[in-house]
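#random but structural
TW: two for the price of one
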Amino acid sequence: MRRRAGSLARALLRRARGDGASVARAPPRALAPASSPSRFLVPSSSSSRADRGASASASSFAPRLRGFAASARALLREHRDTRARVLSPEARLNQDIKACRAADDVLTLVARHGDRFNHVNVATAVNVLCKVTDARRDALNDDARYARLLSLVRARCREFRTREAASATHGLGILFAEKGAVVDADAADALVKVVLAHSASKRDMVPQAIANVLNAILKTDAFLRAVRRANANAVRPGGGGAWAKLARAAERVAPAFNAHDVSNVTHAYAGLRRVAPEALEAANATGLWRAVADATRRCRDWDAQSISLTTDAAKKVDGFARALDVGDANGDDDADDANDDDGWLALARGVARHAPRFHNQHAVLVLSALGWRPQFARAMSRVDGGWDAALASVERNLDGIESGRVERPRDYVVGRKIKKRTHEVMKTLDAIARIQAQRRHERQRRAEEDEEEVVGGSMTPPR
């Protein structure tokens, strides 16, 4: 075997030198059978010389192999450069936008090359700008280049596909809610019209797109007013209004929801119930909540944020809570059946699994949902260690709950609807009081049932 390796190395070396030799031309050497005693004999002097020749050949071949790798890398770089030369100017411009690391870089490209922007460049610029803007450093509202970008949105949004429309809507929503930037009514109206036109698309409307649109509407006053105007101008407000179109779009893609899609959509509707009750009415008139509840039972990719936001939405949105109650595993629509793997049990299992990673806001949201929804509390009792995990998350975050600290992005605009210091404390105390009332009611109900059993047994005539 060693002699065969040496001959192979020498053949490879000759092939690398280009002298026409090949592995196939190497003289065949018969290998000793496995049972041959020669395998266990001391190597001869000729085999030792072959071994030394193989080592020398291998050591001299290594630099050539490294040179070949360097040549291959050079060819790859040349291929990429050639591909870059054949890219369209818009595609190269899109790459430049994605490479920006500061708001000034994005806005500089808008000022210099805005006239050459196509619809993809505009959507990319908005999306990148919302990620790289620092609210404490970048004053977008005083920057003429940002106004230029909004004018490009108005001019190019009719060419948006579903992906670009959802991306631009989400980006402007982040810029308004977290960066303090203004979104004008004309840009909002134009974008909302495009989103509603694409809401019936079965191919392009994906779960992330509808979730981004709903959260942008919740966060941005201009988008909310634009949807209300579109809903009021609908020919059939009851069936063809803007809110109904968005709800049906979410229902259609709900079978593909993951945990983050479930939490984003339900959280958006939980927020809209106060500022736009008509949005919740339109959702209740469709099969959205049953579809979202089915996705909730199916999801296994929860994390601390998604499970806490979903439980909070189940507390606030009655339609979602009813959908979690019914349609359980054995089809008897009995949420109290211990054999049912219903929606509340799926949420309870997610809480028990991720409670060790809760921060104070997560812990308060879950505890409040346990206090407001008795069916959620019963499901938590059916999960091993469920209550222990939920209460331990509250105990671990008591300092944060008392101080009212909430984890937020580094450049979050301080002063926009920041909760009061005592809000989480009062919410926690209210949840504890409700849980204690549930326990008292449960003990009283069990005592009455035991008493009825005792009375019923004493009245049974002897046989």
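TW: number two ↓
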Amino acid sequence: MSEREPIHEPALPYIDEEVEAIHAAADRFEHATAPELLEWALDRFHPRMAISAAGGVDGMALIDMAWRINPEIRVFTLDTGRLPPETYTLFEEIREHYGIAVEFEYPTARPSRSWSRPRART
């Protein structure tokens, strides 16, 4: 079996300092656990960083892990207007349990209308 070709060219650093920073980060996090990596990211980027969650188990695990590191973690979800009621209930439970007010982001109206418009048969 042959090795797969990349679907794009690898990104090249713009300056030598980027190369050093990339290699240092790779070395630092080579054997890091998920909580260690998340703690580093929260320490460095909070409050600009937020966890994206759609209501699945993976997002819930990240929320719990991040909250244990920093209870002021920001969480957002993309609300297309087509989420099942259970998802809204789950985010309300997150607010009650963790004290996190999930931020709802909405796509622009024009594209979302075209996605939900019935298609004509040809």
